[in-house]
Specification:
Blueprint lengths: L6 H4 L2 E5 L2 E4 L10 E2 L3 E4 L8 H5 L6 E4 L8 E4 L11 H5 L5 E3 L5 H23 L7 H18 L1 H9 L23 H17 L2 H29 L1 H9 L5 H14 L1
Antiparallel strand pairs: 1-2, 2-3, 3-4, 4-7, 5-6
């Protein structure tokens, strides 16, 4: 029987070891529960084959002795689960299906997303209902153009990932997607977020809109930099070649490079 993918709902967190959650029931040495939250290993199923340690590009596992357990005397412990690149190799290759990888962006990123939507919606509503705060018409209309341009970039994962990954979740990034907007910039959704926020600032022309958008933009850009490190680990030379071909979020440069590639064809 494989690990329960809903273990965080169906089980109780009983303790922690080296900052890694332990999900019960735990009755040593016969029952040891599940170790980890982002990368979870059911120690009661695990046979200690070590495949997960061999295939993990981030080397986030190490061994723990489990003397007396019925399935094996040692188990893989996801001590660096926060460094998981979500390549899903350990989950896919575990012969007894004892591992479940749970995608999850940083908590600061997750917390900033509702604030971003509030900034965009509030600014647009303000601009429509009350008019631009500074009363400048040209920036107001430019803001709408930027808003429209940003929408397809924002929805890029939902448009291109399921098709490229045969209908899998947009979170299951098992292949490099380089079509559509991903052929223009490497992080179109984040670029879309930035464009939507900037466009909404021009629509409202209110100082509060800009104050809210600035730290969110910095946070998102830092998230992109960290994500790219993980993607290099995850996809190796294939992603390095993609980085050389497609800019990170420079829209103008991305369009120029795309047109050059099409011209060569």
């Amino acid at each position: 029987m494989p690990i329960d993918p809903n273990f965080q709902k169906n089980r109780k967190k009983v303790s922690k070891e080296a900052g890694v959650a332990i999900w019960g029931p735990v009755v040593p040495p016969q029952k040891l529960g599940i170790r980890g939250s982002n990368v979870a290993v059911d120690w009661d199923i695990c046979t200690g084959c070590g495949i997960c340690l061999n295939v993990c590009p981030a080397q986030l596992y190490n061994w723990r002795e489990t003397t007396g357990h019925p399935t094996s005397e040692k188990k893989p412990f996801p001590i660096r689960e926060s460094e998981c690149t979500c390549c899903y190799q350990c989950e896919a290759q575990c012969p007894v299906q004892a591992i479940h990888v749970v995608f999850g962006p940083p908590k600061t990123f997750t917390a900033a997303v509702p604030l971003m939507f509030a900034q965009i919606i509030g600014s647009v509503v303000y601009g429509i209902v009350l008019g631009p705060y500074l009363g400048l018409n040209i920036p107001f209309y430019v803001g709408w153009i930027i808003l429209v341009v940003g929408l397809p970039f924002f929805f890029s994962p939902a448009i291109y990932f399921p098709k490229a990954q045969e209908g899998k979740s947009v979170m299951d990034t098992t292949v490099i997607v380089d079509s559509g907007t991903y052929g223009i910039v490497r992080h179109p959704q984040i670029l879309g977020c930035l464009l939507l926020m900037f466009g909404s600032i021009l629509i409202s022309q209110h100082w509060l809109s800009a104050i809210i958008a600035l730290p969110i933009s910095v946070l998102f850009y830092r998230y992109v930099l960290n994500e790219e490190k993980d993607l290099v680990v995850k996809f190796g030379d294939d992603y390095r070649r993609y980085m050389q071909k497609v800019p990170r979020m420079d829209l103008l440069l991305g369009i120029i490079r795309l047109l050059r590639r099409k011209k060569r064809l």
